[in-house]
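[agent] plan:
  1. take the single chain provided in the ticket
  2. run structure prediction with default settings
  3. attach structure tokens to the ticket
  4. add a short note for the reviewer (M.T.)
[agent] executing step 1
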Amino acid sequence: MRFNWSTILGVTLIVATLTCAVLVGRRRGRCGLRRAGEEREMAAHPPERRILVVEDEPAIASFVRRGLIFEGFAVQAIDNGRDALQSIRDNPPDLLVLDLMLPQVDGIELTRRIRAAEAAEGRRQLPILMLTARDSIQDRITGLDAGGDDYLVKPFNFDELLARIRALLRRTTIAATENGEVLHFADVSVDLGARTVVRDGRGLQLTPREFDLLALFLRHPNQVLTRSTLMQRVWGEDFFGESNVLEVVVGNLRRALEAADEPRLIQTVRGVGYVLRES
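[agent] step 2 finished; step 3 output follows
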């Protein structure tokens, strides 16, 4: 028996969209109506929290856009990388939900261009949540190395997507309250307000996730931090993640810190976690 994969994909997307509508309907009661107290829930995500969704599959883009609007976010959807890049330059969002397989400019290249522009102009880094059907470990590493903050594989549950978005926005809010504080350890300095890192006079370009992880280590020098503590403090309690995501980010952070052959500062405590200390 031969399968028509286009038909199967179409049916899958329709079911996903209907599922989202049902879930959202259960949360809101009847369509367009809010239960008592839901104005407080909407206030947790005021309209100025803008999310840009870049996805070329219309059903998925609509599914994500409508779900996020129901949750109180202002959402714009774009279906190609070139227009997305222009929109980010003209009117930067608070968070980017980015499909990797895009026409014109793919998600990986778009992320690299965004990070390069931020570094050149000294702008705060935009939180990027990547969406993709590619689920291999190497694909995840490529996405994170390009500058992505999180990585969600299709098909996904809307509640998981929402939890990841909330976690990324919480970290952005916390970072905004830390202006002016500078952390030091050995020859490393971390400016929390400017979100810059210098080691022995050399500036480091880190992703937001790498920066948050390093800042956590500098707040607890010479203290062993368990894997669960690091995951909770950096990724948040809402994180639904792969078992190796911490190892990937620690590896990237070590490479950045040791790019000029400096001694290792982030040490592995086998079976427990990691510690920031001089060798």
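[agent] step 4 note for reviewer: The chain has two domains: 11-175, 179-276.
[agent] ticket updated
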